Amino acid sequence: MRALHVITGLGVGGAEQQLRLLLRHLPADCDVVTLTNPGRVAEGLAADGVRVTHLGMAGNRDLGALPRLVRLIRAGGYDLVHTHLYRACLYGRIAARLAGVRAVVATEHSLGDTQMEGRPLTPGVRALYLAGERLGRTTVAVSATVAARLERWGVPPSRIVVVPNGVDLDRFRFDPGRRERTRRR
């Protein structure tokens, strides 16, 4: 299976780190496209062997990004498009459907009561989200709180699946040598 993950940006953040952790453990052949900001996480993904493409989106209203994303999806022959974060969910779902991809899912990593990606949460922002949400099959919420907010927005509960964020246990593995060095400081 070929999967494309579409994310708003790859600066250092929780959603970005979760995507990198997820890709380390997926059996599928995965690529990533970042709409903006190919930051430090993009470098880490590339070091992990993941192909990362920067779409060069200039801003929220850069509608020229949509046909570029459609072409990228068609050229990649993807079986699945998985979107992460608001702008990527909106553009990615539309582009995937226009490219003929039927398996489209999204992960909603954070959904504020008053803001979305640092901008005020207006009725228009919510309406765009709901219109795009209908183009996918499922929305994964990373917590029960995010799931409840999605429901309050009007996403049917039958379309929401809660999958909590993962933790890289190796990062927190007990290391007696490290403990000893720390105690000596």
Automatic annotation (TrEMBL):
Stored InterPro entries: Glyco_trans_4-like_N (IPR028098)
Keyword Cytoplasm: no
Pfam families tied to this protein: Glyco_transf_4 (PF13439)
GO molecular function list: glycosyltransferase activity
Protein name as catalogued: Glycosyltransferase
Residues of the Glycosyltransferase subfamily 4-like N-terminal domain: 12-171
Annotated keywords: Glycosyltransferase, Transferase
Gene3D superfamilies to which the protein is assigned, alphabetical: Glycogen Phosphorylase B
Keyword tRNA processing: no
Organism superkingdom: Bacteria
